[in-house]
Backbone:
């Protein structure tokens, strides 16, 4: 009997390769290991001791099939029923695990802006909360939810520049 389930390719970058790439490109970061965190609420105690703004990340798909990654401050309210108009997309819903793995190389609970390193085909439109764009230090999972990587804003922007990604910066507190 043959297994007909499609094999998912292995992403080019995992945590170790990502952190090596950052070091090779002079991106200063500090990575803290911790127990797996699947939701923002689960990691509040862990994050309390780490400086900077912490994130929540939403992997979304619109009705036309476009993929979106929203990275926002962990306490930002994102109204998906209204956000699509501001983003210029069709109605948004959560993207499935297969698409997440194919494009960002992460599993649910590990979604991160750093996953854009695996999106070589630029299938995902990156949206960044204005608060993160203006924060001195930002924290993201390094492709796994068992660690948090902190970077100063200049280093985060260097990551985006190296990946040739220009985020759509949105003030979610002022959605139409």
Residues:
């Amino acid at each position: 009997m043959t297994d007909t389930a499609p094999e998912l390719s292995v992403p080019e970058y995992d945590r170790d390769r990502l952190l090596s790439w950052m070091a090779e490109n002079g991106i200063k970061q500090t990575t803290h290991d911790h127990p797996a965190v699947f939701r923002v609420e689960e990691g509040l105690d862990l994050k309390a001791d780490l400086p900077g703004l912490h994130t929540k990340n939403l992997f979304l798909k619109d009705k036309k099939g476009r993929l979106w990654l929203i990275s926002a401050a962990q306490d930002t309210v994102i109204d998906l029923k209204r956000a699509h108009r501001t983003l210029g997309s069709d109605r948004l819903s959560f993207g499935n695990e297969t698409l997440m793995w194919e494009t960002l190389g992460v599993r649910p609970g590990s979604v991160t802006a750093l996953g854009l390193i695996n999106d070589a085909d630029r299938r995902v439109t990156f949206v960044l909360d204005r608060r993160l764009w203006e924060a001195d230090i930002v924290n993201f999972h390094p492709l796994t939810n068992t660690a948090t990587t902190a970077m100063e804003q200049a280093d985060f922007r260097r990551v985006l520049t190296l990946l040739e990604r220009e985020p759509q910066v949105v003030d979610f507190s002022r959605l139409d």
